[in-house]
Specification:
The chain is mostly helical and 221 residues long. It has a domain of 142 residues: Orthogonal Bundle (Tetracycline Repressor, domain 2). It is 70% helix and 0% strand. It has nine helices and no strands. It is elongated.
C-alpha cells in the first residue's frame, strides 16, 4: 500500500458536508491525513510541517485546531474510537434485533462483522490503538489512558455478551469467559497485521469466522 501523506485511506464517520463549517472541514481533513501518515510511518515520523503542506494550510492554521501533536493524537484517537464503536453498535443492534437468543445473536454479529471486513475496498489501513500501544513513549498520559480505556471497553462489551450466553448455555468445558471475550480483539488486531504482511484483504473475515466456530464449540452450538 502506498505511504503518501495526504492519501486518505482511513475509514471515517460520514459527516454531512452541508452542515460542517469550513473550519470543521479543515480539521477533519487534517485528521484524515494524520491517520494515514501515522499508521503507515509512525507518530514520530509524522511532522506538523508535512501535515500542514498536505492539508494546504498554514502552520498557524494547524495550531488553531490543535494545541500540539498530542492534542492531535487525542482528537484522532477519540474519532477512531467513536468510528469503531459506531460500527460495532450498528452490527450489535442489527444482530440483536434479528434474534433474541444471546448465542445465536452473537454468532450472527460475528458473521456481520466478517462480512463488513470482506466488503472493505482494500486492505485495512491499520489500527491506531496498536500504533499508540507500540509507540507509547511518544504520547502523553491522557492519550495512553484513552487507549487503555478503549481496550477495556471492548473487553467489557464482549465479556458481558459472552456471560449472558454462558448463563443459558453452560460451556462444554471449563472456559475463561473474559479471555474468550479478549480473543476477538486479539484476532482482529493480529489479522490486521497478517493481512498487510500477506496482502490478503479477506484474511480478517476468515479469522473472524474461525473465532465464530470456536465460540460455537465452546457453548455446544
Amino acid at each position: 500500500m502506498p505511504e503518501r501523506v495526504g492519501e486518505k485511506t482511513a475509514p471515517s464517520v460520514q459527516l454531512d458536508p452541508e452542515v460542517l463549517t469550513k473550519g470543521e472541514r479543515t480539521r477533519q481533513r487534517i485528521l484524515d491525513i494524520a491517520y494515514d501518515s501515522i499508521v503507515h510511518k509512525g507518530f514520530a515520523a509524522t511532522s506538523i510541517e508535512e501535515l500542514v503542506e498536505a492539508a494546504g494550510i498554514t502552520k498557524s492554521g494547524f495550531f488553531y485546531h490543535f494545541r500540539d501533536k498530542n492534542d492531535l493524537a487525542r482528537q484522532l484517537l477519540h474519532r477512531f474510537i467513536s468510528e469503531d464503536n459506531e460500527l460495532i453498535d450498528g452490527l450489535t443492534e442489527r444482530a440483536r434485533s434479528l434474534c433474541d437468543d444471546p448465542l445465536q445473536s452473537f454468532l450472527l454479529f460475528l458473521n456481520l462483522y466478517a462480512e463488513a471486513m470482506d466488503d472493505m475496498p482494500e486492505l485495512h489501513p491499520g489500527c491506531l490503538i496498536a500504533t499508540i500501544t507500540y509507540q507509547a513513549a511518544l504520547f502523553d498520559r491522557v492519550v495512553l489512558q484513552m487507549n487503555r480505556d478503549s481496550v477495556m471497553a471492548l473487553r467489557r462489551r464482549f465479556a458481558s455478551w459472552i456471560e449472558e450466553i454462558a448463563e443459558r448455555y453452560p460451556p462444554r468445558s471449563e472456559a475463561d469467559l473474559e479471555a474468550l471475550a479478549d480473543m476477538l480483539t486479539v484476532i482482529v488486531e493480529g489479522a490486521i497485521v497478517l493481512s498487510k504482511a500477506l496482502d490478503d484483504k479477506y484474511l480478517m473475515g476468515r479469522q473472524t469466522r474461525i473465532y465464530r466456530e470456536h465460540v460455537k464449540a465452546v457453548f455446544g452450538a
